Amino acid sequence: MIQIDIEIDTSGLMCPLPLLRLKKALQAMEAGQVVRVLATDPASVLDFGVFLEQAGHQMLDRKEETGVFFYLIRKA
Fold this sequence. Notes:
Distance between the termini: 19 Å
């Protein structure tokens, strides 16, 4: 089981706010820590994917349940 160090709920927020909240959280984290993000913005799938690829962070898991997207991300 993966230990979650920080959880961010961006439900109801639209682009670019979920991504900005994720970036802010990652800046405060140490390498190897894991953040769990909840989002309702469908654009978060693409936004997070592109950002994580460029920044080198790792998407551990991504799933969607009834319009809510759940992400587990490990800081590089």
